[in-house]
Amino acid sequence: MTPNGRTKLSTHVLDLVSGLPAPGLAVKLYDPEDALISSAITNEDGRIEAWDGAVDLGSGSYRLVFDIVGYRQTHGASEHDLLFPRIEIIFHLDGSRSRLHIPVLLSNYGYTTYRGS
């Protein structure tokens, strides 16, 4: 258990189509009651480490929503070209980790995520 039972969150998106990080991808974070906590846009390295609000999460289930259609449209794709227009990742925290990193590997017809370090 962490001293205060709180967890800091970061994410990183790699675009496997281009082989590069995914900058400019909008991400929203929802709390266990499904209320919007914060949002951010990936930086030039495809990372979000600083959110638009304080993200110091307690125990519970949370949801990250990645706006894939918005990101792909800035790279010339249409909404009809996308199999997954958004990615929703639901994760659970128990207060045992002071930091959680959730990477996403993005391709045209799929995605992968895992608990990063």
Topology-level CATH name: Immunoglobulin-like
Global outline: elongated
CATH class equals Mainly Beta
Helix content: under 10%
What integer is the average pLDDT? 89
CATH architecture: Sandwich
As a percent range, the share of strand residues is over 45%
Low-confidence stretches: none
CATH superfamily: Transthyretin/hydroxyisourate hydrolase domain
Biggest sheet architecture: 6 strands, mixed
Explain what this protein looks like in three dimensions.
This protein is mostly beta strands and 117 residues long. The chain has a single domain (7-113), classed as Sandwich (Immunoglobulin-like), CATH 2.60.40.180. It has 1 helix and 10 strands, in the order βββββββαβββ. The mean pLDDT is 89.
Helices and strands in order:
Elements: E1 7-15, E2 20-21, E3 26-30, E4 36-41, E5 47-48, E6 56-57, E7 60-67, H1 68-73, E8 86-93, E9 99-106, E10 111-113
Parallel strand pairs: 1-9
Antiparallel strand pairs: 1-2, 1-5, 1-6, 3-4, 3-7, 7-8, 9-10
